[in-house]
Design brief:
Layout lengths: L2 H4 L16 E5 L4 H12 L3 E6 L2 H11 L2 E4 L17 E4 L14 H29 L2 E6 L12 H21 L4 E8 L5 H4 L2 H8 L3 H9 L11 H11 L11 E4 L6
Parallel strand pairs: 1-2, 1-4, 2-3, 4-5, 5-6, 6-7
Helix pairs in contact: 2-3, 2-9, 4-5, 7-8
Amino acid sequence: MSAASAGYPPASAGGTLPLAGRRALITGGAGGIGLACGRLLAERGAHVILADIEAKAVQSAAREIGGEALVLDLLDTAQLEDRQFDVDILVNNAGMQSLSPIETCEPAVFRRMMTLMLEAPFLLIRASLPHMYRTGFGRIINMSSVHGLRASPLKAPYVAAKHGLEGLSKVTAREGGPHGVTSNCVNPGFVSTPLVTNQIADQAAANGIQEQDVLQDVLLAKNAIKRLVEPHEVASLVGFLASDEASMITGASYTIDGGWTA
């Protein structure tokens, strides 16, 4: 998808790409939403750093968009504590999913998901703010979920982590505002990525239905628009929040869910 077809805005007055000169770090960048965000931000002129634990995949993705690959294990939080990232845009996107009722949820799984989706974003924000404060510009975009605003059965670790991310994003907005830094959450519904499609067998078993019925009867049951969100649609919203035009938008949570939360 070209910058012109991706949505708002293709270029600023005078032909300069709107994100020229900006550096963006995107976690979970090897595929799915992360790669879609990387493509769009690169098309708009940003130097994009895709971070992911999957070395070959993230290196291939970075070559595709003309960006930079960073092999990074976000579960190894100790190695993040002393790092600094000189980036203007941070997209906290890495995530995982697990389905089980609370009484059988393994504590190790709960801790792992909280580490990946709450502690790691905190450390990445902490590592990025000094540069943003020095330059007077920063865009922090946290990939939350409708489950950062609502709850569903079988997803206690995921829902807890996303609700925590919402709070972290709002505190960052309050602290960062005087320094030209905005912080917002993007809240997709079910997106057409492996993170969602890999749930289908577990959802079928948990709900006592056939796998072919999961999409309409479970994942899209609350949607007004009966289809999955596409990664490029999420990226389009991220692109706007990363722009100069979004300078007065901070501490907000933007659903892109086909009416799931209406």
